[in-house]
Amino acid sequence: MAGGVDAAVATFAAGVSRAGQHVAMIGTSMCWGYINQTVDARHGLISMPHVFNSQRDIYVFGGAITAGASVTWYRDQFCQAEIEAARATPHGDPHRLLEESAAKVPAGSDGVMFLPYLIGERSPVWDAKASGAFVGLSLFHTRAHLYRAVLEGVSFALKHNIEAGRQGAQSLEDKLIVVGGAAHSDLWMQIIADITGYPVYTIEQEVEAAMGAALLAALGVGLISREAAQGGWITLIERAQLDAARMARYDERFDIYKDLYPALKPVMHRLQTS
Length: 274
Hints:
Blueprint: H1 6-13, E1 22-26, E2 30-36, E3 46-49, E4 58-64, H2 68-78, H3 80-86, H4 94-102, E5 113-115, E6 133-135, H5 143-168, E7 176-179, H6 186-196, E8 200-203, H7 209-220, H8 226-230, E9 236-240, H9 244-273
Parallel strand pairs: 1-7, 7-8
Antiparallel strand pairs: 1-2, 2-4, 3-4, 5-6, 8-9
Helix pairs in contact: 1-7, 2-3, 2-5, 3-4, 4-5, 5-6, 6-9
């Protein structure tokens, strides 16, 4: 009996055991992965035997280093007013206050974009010297614009990985499962649906990697059958359906997002070495 990395066992917990199923695990960092039977390393993703059916199935994955970490950084550095105000609320969560304001900002954050490369970046960029950036700022923009831009920037990084994965995937299912702390945010789930073009589902139970590890252990010691393990131990709930108008706007923005890193890379590297 053997375990696996957190993203792989969380993927297994979500009932992902067939080619084409895919899951984004978004916590401090982000990992998106899917099941395949072949590997094409030219697209910048990583692969390993999946934790289930490992003789046949391959877990192909990639992700961003600072996903939720970007949100936490922005909150802690620029949102003291919301942190203080949240202490007077029953929920005590500054993110709820930030999201109330960010939800009023239109898709695309009125022209502000965020690159979430706060300690370099993993796939498909693979650049330890990449750095974060807000691009498109003006006197018009507020903290609500920037908060939404952070959520959108991490979501663009997710789509960047999905686009890389799609080039080597036999197929990808027409729904995206999201696990991790980000799944608590209704606004973020909607942004992800609109940016990726996939309806978003999350796990009803608030355990993911630990549930997957327990499922593997139960399978390994013979407490459950392979058929039972294949379905997972969780219940998926629909969280967001994509909006066609917002998706069209985000498709235009994604082209800009992909252009930003190559354009800024020389400056990023010069700043790292100066």
